[in-house]
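Entry 14. Ran structure prediction on the chain below.
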Amino acid sequence: MKNQSMASNKLNNFLTANVIAYSISALSAIAFAQAANPVQNNPVQNNPGPALPVLPATPSINTVPTIISLQPITIKESYATDFRSEHQQVSSGWLMVIRGDSNILAPRALAEPLLLASGTGADGSVWIESVEWFNHGFISGYRVCFIPSTADQKSVADRTTQGLRVWFGSPKLPESVDAKALQSELMEADRVGIVAASAVKVEDSAPKVLANREEIVSAANALIARWAPDEIQNEGVSVPVAPASK
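Output, structure tokens:
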């Protein structure tokens, strides 16, 4: 049991260290670009400098990711999401793997395009969420995410994957997003023609029951090891490797 706990803590530490390392690397590239040519650098346009590709315009039908898999999740011990300014409690959702363009997935120290999801409830209403993500997927092209259900329990129970849309919205910090901002993103998605995904693979009809947020992170790390092994660290050292057979 002690060894399992130590392994779980190590996986969680990897996730935090990896995201911080990506952000520091991107921030250094931005600082270098500003010093070399401060006139051309424009933070409003989220230009990362010469080290990373220029961010495409979002939302756009040209940057919509492919949904690889979905796993419904139920969480016994709810948690407050950091991907909404209201920090709503989350007790269910979908663990998801997407494939996207590296120009979008590249880590940036500034605001990044929001990863968003919307679908239709059993009563025909449309829901929208700010999607949590666990890795960038810049090299492999695969990002592991979680679509949280932040509505009241009755609405959550009625949610389905019917009409599911996943897309990259306007660049923002996830912690700044509220319900009003999400509705604005939904209207913009409709305007540019973001459509529902086709042939979405749902892993199980019944939700997988997890104890808490830590178990979601552990499940996400297992998916990262499969789909984005270049983001797995060994003894604190990250060594990019060829993606494993999917």
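The first strand starts at residue 66 and ends at 80. Will compare against last week's run tomorrow.
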